[in-house]
Amino acid sequence: MYGGLPPILMKRAYDILHADDEEKKSKKKEPLTVKDVLLDIFKEAGLEATHDETVNGITVDILLKHNGKRVAVLLVPRGFKLDETMRGYGKLKLNVDGILAVCVHKKANPEEKELASSLNLVLWDRDDYIRLKKAKTNTKSFRDLLLIETGLAGRDPVLERLSRTYLACLPTGLLTFW
To answer: Of 76, 93, 152, 156, which one has the fewest beta carbons inside 10 Å?
Structure first.
């Protein structure tokens, strides 16, 4: 292809022809963290979300805001016991309207979900996280569902009915903490 070119020129020609390949390799996106994925989901759904926000001297992973209400999103670290972590989250004095605990490394059992409910926490486990990632997050129904599930909407009966209708339309449900 390069004919009788000297080797140095052949290498240079090869480099010029394949420069785009190297550029594409160097521009590969780094893997997203759970926090990044959740931020993208919340923002795509039209919610105001900031990461690593300090509330009452405590740094929360994500802070959601909507109509004057605030919900702290706290990730359960891998290797920590879910029940102990939720008890710790329940004792925090964050001065927010709700706390959402997200545990992506395991499926929560019924006792853990009941504990979360008794501590006034919303718990999302691995299955909820996977369904959340696969959902169409830019729809109004999904946004309404997120507002209800995170506690940002309050208890609006119309929104609750809409979100239950949306859940019923999905084959496996979307979020499973009703």
So the answer is: 93
Contacts of 56 (CB under 8 A, 6+ apart): 93, 94, 95
Q: Name residues whose C-beta falls within 8 Å of residue 103's C-beta, 6 or more positions apart in sequence.
A: 75, 76, 82, 85, 123, 124, 125, 126
SS3 state of residue 121: strand
Q: If 0-12 CB within 10 Å is exposed, 13-18 middle and 19+ buried, where does residue 101 land?
A: buried
Domain hosting residue 13, numbered range: 1-30
Secondary structure letter of residue 156 according to DSSP:
-
Asked if residue 67 and residue 25 are part of one domain, the reply reads no
Here the CATH number for the domain that contains residue 41 is 3.40.1350.10
Q: Do both 12 and 75 map to the same domain?
A: no
29-70 pLDDT, tens digit per residue, is 555 888 998 898 888 888 899 999 998 888 999 999 888 888
pTM over 0.85: no
Backbone angles phi, psi at 129, to 5 degrees: -65, -45
Residue 132 tokens, joined: 């959340």
